[in-house]
Design goal:
By secondary structure, the chain is of the alpha/beta class. The protein is 33% helix and 11% strand.
């Protein structure tokens, strides 16, 4: 192969992948690189979905779920000593039994300022749930989900290759994840399922590769992202559908049936891709003599990808237009379920961006279409979604910025859970949070810095812990020593060493989802490192998470 040919090929592939992650070209570029997968999909007779909520930047979970106990190592005093003026007050707040009040009637309200509301207090879980954490006051919906057994806490979880102790770190014998504390590397490790290999494909992408023909061969496949073209959903042979909340992906000015000009343009597009066709308008037609003959291999690749892309977008557009979805349920303020509360409603001077709430609304609709097979596949059984909420890298101005993020997170997951319950899908769907890393217990004067272990959330079920559904309302794992330079501090900044591996949670979720145990070593090669009982890989799973 000539150097010129190699360069042409490389530049062509770069062009395909350079498209917008939220629209047609992002999906088109990934579709272009698909190969025919060889593994067969399991024959499922039910529907299940996983929803990954990625909190980009590294969420400060110790200010989301606050230690409230009296233990000198794990309790409130040790936390507050490190956090200083950024510590949440050990002030129990009362959670209303009904809808929240507006403005000053919010339980966390403090002079209309999000920063003061953030530090005001917490909703204690010790009495209701039996573990000594409190939910930040700006997250009343999350507190309700936990108290109603519809969400659980994973305590001190993080990216690990194998269990690590402080003594191993001190004597440099610890097998640590690569590039610990670096955003992009930790995001990649979490999404590939390998803390010691950053070059692999995504673990959800591997599932799609091994489940060829899933959902009765629907062109939508398994994975759908509202968070861009992130690695977790990308396989070697398969790729996710990449969409924007609210707007279905489409190729510009080529929506089927929208306008005559769109239909004519679609006919021309097909002809350029080598497909003979007639426009439904009757104005133009392309027989074999007027259809482009693709002889160059790159042209054929692009034409195939273009055609696949257009077919997927047509399927989504048709299904969405045929699927009417309204909710009788309201949100925690009594407003329309997926509305974004105003600053006045929230009792803040600043507004929420609302993008995360809209992503969750889009996922809810896609799940309902999947369960009811609006896509007309004949059997739609499994979906994995990825959504995101960003700007958690709170090195500065944390007291003003973090409460807005936590408020939207609380609202978004609560609205989504309410939708799943109304639609009858709550036992079929499990959602979970991930984030780059936790943040330091130490306070840098205006915020917190990159750290390691953190608390995370898993949500789903109907609160009854029925067989096969999430057992909510519990804390899995144990609270860490939060003292600066304490037994669980990586160094002297309050970088907490995790005691649960993200791989353990992800493997447990995948087992619930229907992934065969034989595939787990491919998805999470380090899972056996976390066996509690030697040579018993089952002991590495978090078996108490589901009923």
């Amino acid at each position: 192969m000539s150097t010129h040919y190699k360069k042409q090929r490389r530049d062509f592939l770069k062009t395909l992948l350079a498209g917008s992650a939220s629209g047609a070209l992002g999906s088109l570029g990934q579709l272009a690189l698909m190969r025919e997968a060889t593994a067969a999909a399991p024959a499922f007779g039910d529907y299940k979905a996983l929803v990954c909520v990625f909190l980009y930047g590294g969420n400060d979970s110790f200010n989301m779920l606050i230690p409230t106990g009296v233990d000198s190592r794990t309790g409130y005093a040790a936390y507050a000593a490190g956090r200083s003026e950024l510590s949440i007050a050990n002030n129990p707040l009362t959670l209303p039994s009904g809808n929240l009040g507006f403005g000053a009637a919010n339980p966390y309200y403090s002079n209309g300022l999000s920063g003061e509301a953030y530090l005001k207090g917490h909703y204690p879980l010790a009495e209701s749930n039996g573990f000594e954490l409190g939910v930040n006051g700006v997250m009343p919906e999350l507190a309700r989900l936990i108290q109603n057994n519809k969400a659980s806490v994973l305590a001190n979880i993080g990216n690990l290759v194998e269990p690590v102790s402080k003594s191993q770190i001190n004597d440099e014998s610890a097998n640590l994840p690569l590039f610990l504390f670096a955003h992009n590397h930790q995001q990649r490790a979490l999404q590939t399922g390998q803390g010691d290999n950053l070059d692999d494909i995504g673990w959800a992408g591997k599932i799609a590769d091994n489940w060829a023909g899933i959902n009765n061969g629907s062109p939508l496949g398994l994975n759908i992202s509202y968070a861009g073209n992130d690695r977790m959903l990308i396989g070697r042979d398969t790729s996710p559908i990449v969409a924007s909340s609210g707007d279905l992906p489409e190729i510009y000015d080529m929506k089927k049936g929208a306008y005559e000009s769109h239909d004519d343009r679609r006919a021309l597009f097909k002809a350029l891709a080598g497909v003979s066709n007639n426009s439904p308008t009757g104005y133009i037609s392309f027989d074999a003599s007027r259809t482009h003959q693709n002889t160059d291999p790159f042209e054929r690749l692009f034409s195939s990808a273009s055609t696949k892309s257009q077919n997927v977008f047509d399927l989504l557009s048709t299904a969405s237009s045929e699927h009417s979805l309204t909710y009788s349920s309201t949100d925690s303020y009594g407003n329309e379920l997926f509305s974004v509360p105003s600053a006045a409603d929230l009792g803040f001077s600043a507004v929420l961006k609302g993008s995360f709430i809209k992503q969750m609304e889009s996922v809810a609709k896609m799940i309902d279409m999947g369960v009811k097979d609006t896509f007309r596949s004949g059997s739609y059984n499994r979906q994995i979604f990825m959504v995101s909420l960003g700007s958690f890298d709170t090195h500065s101005d944390q007291a003003s910025q973090h409460p807005l993020l936590l408020r939207e997170l609380s609202l978004g997951i609560s609205k989504f859970q309410t939708a799943m319950e109304e639609l009858g899908h709550s036992k079929k769907v499990t959602s979970f949070t991930m984030s780059d890393f936790g943040r330091t217990l130490g306070n840098n004067g205006d915020g917190t810095d990159h750290a390691w272990g953190a608390h995370h959330l898993v949500m789903g079920g109907d609160g009854t812990a029925s067989a096969g559904a999430l057992k909510g309302g519990q804390m899995i794992g144990s609270l860490p020593d939060v003292r600066i330079e304490g037994d669980d501090d990586y160094s002297d900044k309050g970088r907490i060493i995790p005691t649960i591996a993200q791989d353990q949670l992800n493997a447990t979720l995948c087992r619930w989802f229907g992934v065969d145990d034989a595939l787990m070593p491919t998805l999470f090669p380090n899972l056996r490192n976390f066996e509690v009982v030697s040579e018993d890989v089952d002991s590495a799973y978090l078996e108490s998470l589901f009923g």
